[in-house]
């Protein structure tokens, strides 16, 4: 098992390129199941969740080749329509194979994902959407068993905006017979890119990027290619690393509109942001950290996947800030660990009340999930002394060798193999 050893207090300087987005690649990959042949996804990040999805797709019969961030998925020989527990328990996004398998092959057996480190994450909306499209769904021995001769178009309204349920519903609707209307659909950039990939395969979708997607189902889709977008959460994490260490860095990041909510909050905290096409410069050298409240929301709101990192940043602000997570009410497992570093944070319902402290002090802390781990790394970079972040396998699920990026910016961070758990 690996851990990070961070000697805090180093200023960061220089330029790094943000990797491709994990969460968009995770929905583009199963979309390839909708056609028969060779699909290309470029700018795919080398992170463990991607390898987990490759293994799941291989189990279904998809041949893949992954090098230099180019992922080739050959869906010519699907032999299995079962996503077993051993794969799904590692990653909830495995449930994305449900819609494509059902739409293309009329049958899917997918393990129920179960709980998550920070509480319940239901998939009722995915299942309701499949039922509306005509699937018969039975839950048996921990599995979703879904069947349908041919899905038919339907009206699907989501009570809650869900990235995953929109993705699954869209992937199923593109091969259904007739027209579907998906309302209160997610407009997250990952779903917009999925729409583009499906359209390139021959799908007929109207309302790209809006909360109402209209889909005229087609009989067949053809293999296609797509360039993945950059990871907006990695971008936000790196910018916040500069902010918390009072540094100046540049990031190379393609889709600036996707992170305006993060940039806006950073500017409110007193740092300077310069937007220059694909380069974003952050300069946090001359200001103290103003306390800034944040409430997470669906896109284009402030993302829940940046909540933990923002909480870490606010621990060193010069006031009290309230950070509320409206997407995942219990996503605060980083808080006790940040407090071990000297932060002063209390949880009140779905909010963290962060009273800024003068300094953080290094200690051993434990990662509990992907974004919690990132918040501990940020705190460690700013803390006095040595911080050890244990269980960074969580971090490796979604950040491509972040320690190398941070080291290239001057951080003193080292990955060490350890028997500690
Ligand atoms: N929800 C339901 N029922 C459902 C599905 C969702 O009630 O059937 C609720 C959830 O409980 C939550 C809200 O809807 O309150 C939104 O969840 P959503 O379905 O949008 O989340 P997701 O698709 O499971 C993706 C990302 C998460 C990210 C969320 C929110 C992927 C693979 N995962 O999850 O990313 O937090 O959207 O933006 O795209 C991460 O990268 O660290 C991560 C957890």
Q: What is the compact description of this entry?
A:
The protein has 421 residues and is an alpha/beta fold.
Describe what you observe in this structure.
The structure is a single chain. This protein has 421 residues and is α/β, with parallel strands linked by helices. Helix content is 31%, strand content 26%. It has 14 helices and 24 strands. The longest helix has 13 residues, at 48-60. It binds uridine-diphosphate-2(N-acetylglucosaminyl) butyric acid. The site of uridine-diphosphate-2(N-acetylglucosaminyl) butyric acid (EPU) has 24 residues, from helix 1, helix 5, helix 6 and helix 12.
Question: Segments where pLDDT lies below 50 for 5+ residues?
Answer: none
What is the beta-strand fraction?
25-35%
| Mean of all residue-level pLDDT scores | 96
Structural class: alpha/beta
Q: What characterizes the major β-sheet? A: 4 strands, mixed
List the SSEs and their pairings:
Elements: E1 2-7, E2 13-17, H1 22-31, E3 38-42, H2 48-60, E4 63-67, E5 70-74, E6 82-83, H3 85-88, H4 98-105, E7 107-111, H5 124-132, E8 136-140, E9 143-147, E10 155-157, H6 163-173, E11 179-183, H7 189-201, E12 204-206, E13 212-216, E14 225-227, H8 232-244, E15 248-252, H9 260-268, E16 272-276, E17 279-283, E18 294-295, H10 307-314, E19 320-324, H11 334-340, E20 344-348, E21 351-355, E22 364-366, H12 370-382, E23 386-390, H13 393-396, H14 402-408, E24 412-417
Helix pairs in contact: 1-2, 1-7, 4-6, 5-6, 6-7, 8-10, 8-12, 10-12, 11-12
The protein binds uridine-diphosphate-2(N-acetylglucosaminyl) butyric acid.
Uridine-diphosphate-2(N-acetylglucosaminyl) butyric acid is lined by residues 23, 26, 92-93, 121-126, 160, 162-165, 190, 303-305, 327-328, 370-371, 398.
């Amino acid at each position: 098992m690996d851990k990070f050893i961070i000697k805090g207090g180093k200023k960061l300087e220089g330029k790094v390129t943000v990797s491709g987005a994990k969460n968009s690649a995770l929905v583009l990959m199963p979309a390839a199941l909708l056609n028969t042949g060779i699909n290309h996804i470029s700018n795919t990040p080398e992170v463990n969740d991607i390898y987990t999805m490759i293994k799941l797709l291989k189990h279904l019969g998809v041949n893949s080749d992954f090098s230099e961030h180019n992922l080739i998925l050959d869906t010519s020989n699907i032999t299995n329509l079962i996503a077993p527990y051993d794969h799904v328990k590692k990653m909830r996004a495995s449930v994305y194979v449900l819609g494509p398998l059902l739409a293309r092959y009329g049958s899917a057996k997918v393990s129920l994902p179960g709980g998550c480190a920070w509480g319940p994450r239901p998939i009722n909306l995915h299942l309701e959407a499949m039922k509306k499209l005509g699937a018969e769904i039975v839950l048996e021995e921990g599995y979703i068993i879904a069947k349908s001769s041919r899905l038919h178009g339907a009206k699907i309204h989501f009570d809650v905006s869900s990235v995953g349920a929109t993705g699954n519903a869209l992937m199923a609707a593109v091969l259904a017979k007739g027209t579907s209307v998906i309302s209160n659909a997610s407009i997250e950039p990952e779903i917009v890119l999925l729409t583009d990939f499906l359209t390139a395969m021959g799908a007929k979708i109207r309302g790209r990027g809006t909360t109402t997607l209209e889909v005229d189902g087609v009989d067949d889709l053809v293999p296609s290619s797509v360039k993945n977008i950059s990871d907006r959460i990695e971008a936000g994490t790196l910018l916040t690393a500069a902010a918390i260490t009072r540094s100046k860095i540049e990031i190379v990041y393609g889709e600036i509109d996707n992170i305006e909510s993060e940039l806006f909050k950073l500017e409110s905290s007193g740092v300077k942001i310069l937007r220059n096409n694909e380069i974003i410069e952050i300069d946090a050298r001359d200001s103290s950290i103003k306390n800034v409240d944040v409430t997470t929301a669906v896109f284009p709101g402030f993302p829940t996947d940046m909540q933990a990192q923002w909480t870490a940043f606010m621990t060193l602000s010069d006031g009290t800030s309230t950070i509320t997570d409206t997407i995942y009410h219990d996503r605060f497992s980083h808080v006790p660990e940040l407090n071990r570093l000297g932060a002063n944070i209390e949880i009140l319902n779905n909010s963290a009340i962060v009273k800024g402290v003068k300094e953080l002090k290094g200690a051993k802390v434990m990662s509990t999930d992907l974004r919690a781990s990132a918040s501990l790394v940020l705190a460690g970079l700013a803390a006095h002394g040595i911080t050890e972040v244990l269980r960074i396998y969580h971090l490796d699920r979604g950040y491509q060798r972040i320690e190398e990026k941070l080291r290239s910016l001057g951080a003193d961070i080292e990955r060490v193999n350890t028997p500690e758990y």
